[in-house]
Amino acid sequence: MDTHDGAPLHGVRAVTLAVNVPGPVAAARLRTLGATVVKIEPPAGDPLEAVSAAWYRELRAGQEVVQLNLKEDGDRRALDDLLGRADLLLTAGSASPGSSCTSGSRASRRSPSSAIPRHTLMRRATTSPTRHRSGC
Predict the structure, then answer these.
(1) d(Cα 133, Cα 62) in Å, to the nearest integer?
(2) Tens of pLDDT, residues 42-51
(3) 123 falls in which pLDDT band (50, 70, 90)?
(4) How many domains does the chain have?
(5) Would residue 20 count as lying in a domain?
(6) How confident is the model at residue 121 (pLDDT cuts 50, 70, 90)?
(7) Angle formed by the axes of helices 22-32 and 53-60, nearest 10°
């Protein structure tokens, strides 16, 4: 029996491309509210895991974690498949649809999944030395 039966987001399927702190925290909250969450990570994993492995494990609990290299055609097709079954797409900053990170996937083209509700978590310091660098 799913322990989230009757939860407000029970039956909602979310895909998250968001890494570091805001993405995993938001995805964990969606999971707590009953959503099924698929967390997409780059091949190197989520940087949060290197900083705080225990907190990372706590935040990703109950989520399916899939590592994809979105610069590879096969992995973009895998993302397309996941998005085709999703109700919500959660992104952060430069990993948002249309960026070089998702270029070529359904997330960046006009397609059935372009109608998926999307929330982008973005907070970038204007004085950051990396503010112009791609987040892929």
Answers:
(1) 32
(2) 999 999 999 9
(3) very low
(4) 1
(5) no
(6) low
(7) 40
Q: Which residues does 86 contact at the CB level (< 8 Å), separation at least 6?
A: 13, 14, 15, 38, 113, 116
Distance CA 115, CA 102 (A): 16
Domain span at 79:
28-121
Gap between the Cα atoms of 95 and 133, Å rounded? 12
Beta bridge partners of 67: 41
pLDDT digits (tens, 9 = 90+) for 18-46: 988 888 999 999 999 999 999 999 999 99
What tokens does 16 get?
């998250």
Residue 59 located in a structural domain: yes
**CA-CA-CA-CA torsion sign (54, 60, 62, 65):** negative
